[in-house]
Amino acid sequence: MTDFSIQRLPFDRKEIDAWAHADDRHTNWPVVYLIDGSRKLYVGETTRAQKRMRQHLDGPKGSAGLDRVRVLIDHTFNKSVCLDLESHLIRWFSGDGQYTVLNGNDGLTDAQYYERDLYRESFHDVFEALRAEGLFSRSIPQIENTDLFKLSPFKALTDDQAIAVGDIVEGLLEDLARPDERSTLVIQGDPGTGKTIVAIFLMKLLADIRDHADVDGVEPDSMFAEFFVPENRAALRDLRMALVIPQQSLRESVQRVFRKTPKLDPSMVLTAFQVGESDTDFDIVFVDETHRLNQRSNQPSGPQNKKFHDINVRLFGSDRPSLTQLDWIQARSRHQILLVDGAQSVRPHDLSPKTLSEVLDQAKDAHRYFRLTTQMRVQAGADYVEFIRSILRGEPATRPDLGDYDLKFFDNVGKMRAAIRAKDAEVGLSRMVAGYAWEWRSHPNRDPSAFDIEIDGEQMRWNKAQKDWINSPGSLEEVGSIHTVQGYDLNYAGVIIGPDIRADVSGAVFASRDDYQDKMGKLRTGSFSGGFSDDDLLVFIRNIYGVLLTRGMLGTYVYVCDPTLRERLRMLLAPR
Q1: What is the pTM of this model?
Q2: To which H or E segment does residue 475 belong?
Q3: First-residue to last-residue Cα distance in the chain
Q4: I want to staple 496 with a disulfide (CB 3.0 to 4.6 A). Which of 81, 343, 434, 551 is the partner?
Q5: What is the pLDDT of residues 220-231, one digit of tens each?
Q6: What is the DSSP letter of 78?
Q7: Fold observed for domain 5-144
Q8: CA-to-CA distance for 493 and 558, rounded, in angstroms?
Q9: Fold agreement between 5-144 and 159-372
Q10: What is the pLDDT of residues 80-135, one digit of tens each?
Q11: Any idea which fold 159-372 has?
Q12: What does the H/E/C string look like for 182-242?
């Protein structure tokens, strides 16, 4: 559809002025441009290329080591096309990781416009032309499968995300202007609604507002342009932020993203222990997967038990059983933004349902509660997520219209494993995952050559890597547990529902304690110290499978070990 050209020139005033006189479109036409140098890059769009380049030369870009300009010109481009192409290129460059992207994220566009699908096809031609010049190191599918792409702050927000971000920034700026004000905001959402993305986006946006230089300008029609004013810069001048991520693997993935993102830093991504041990307070602490924060309970290691005790004594004067890691965060920060989905709690020492309920009620009463509903991960939409949770609760459920979503039921785990291998070869990022219903015999301290999972003659091992398992060598031949995939996206998930969850002849779902192998998942600890019933265990096991069955963006394949549950789920999951 398009017939674009790439014009190349030095990032130099005389060269830009000479180039401007060569064609009227260089001074008055919608274009997209790139400025790069020293492994840094800026992507922009404008209708007045010469004027915009002069502004950049007079601003921070002029002293950032950038020395080359590429201007993408097409006689069919309009403003909407350029905004969309700019957004795509920013996201692709960020996900590729070859360049540090200098852009702010004040609202990338995902608007509809005339013949958008046709234009977006042509964006792939633009990408390949730039890739041929060495600006990209990988293909689009390879980029879009990376954590750098998925966790990047350069995102086009959904409507409910954008509303939440705008309201949160407005409220925070008001609160920060009052030094004695303290607040707790809650963002609640089902799997795949982008809670982690909202936290990362907010941190980048606040840093951009803080460091904004007037000479660089903000597009007046950008989503959050209203916040880029001097009084807000003043309110954020000494802003100290942190992002707490309870899961180690996801925490390290986000640290890699922050390492590649100007104004963010890996040191901002912390554990709850690090916040509790900090010598200074934070202005804002974001908490991803707040439901995975710990109660005062038996920790996975002796040193962590001592740390829990010492932090409680240091902050509150004594080690009371009621104190949690959330209490540490609230003591160490003026404002907290908590990202919550109670149906993803998977162990007894996670925050108790009572604590989560109290936090939600307080946020609602203070009008600091935000709900995300738009499904960003699973292409089948929010109806699929609710369908999965309903069948795990043993409730009557009808398979919704899933569109092109690839939900398949398998009677043979070997065939499912082969199908996942085929999908990985086709689209990448396809893995086998399972509930923790088999002992970890192949643990490095035991017998690495042993097999952990044996079903119908098929032998498999649990994940070797504890960090970034999905991208680790050999992961396609292994089976990931809940602790390796929570918070991550897959293209296809092959889910083995183990014998830890079963159904009786009436169809009621129950937990099999003897088959559940996570020792930390069965402890009488925290709010369960007085007793941990099979019904309590069932809640956690259901939550685990609820997470596993909502990892696949393009499809989910399912195998069920318990014969009675298998027949029940076959009727519900298999297409009619």
Answers
A1: 0.90
A2: none
A3: 40
A4: 434
A5: 567 888 999 999
A6: -
A7: GIY-YIG endonuclease (3.40.1440)
A8: 8
A9: no
A10: 999 999 999 999 999 999 999 999 877 666 778 999 999 999 999 999 999 999 99
A11: Rossmann fold (3.40.50)
A12: CEEEEEEECCCCCHHHHHHHHHHHHHHHHHCCHHHCCCCCCCCHHHCCHHHHHHCCCCCEE
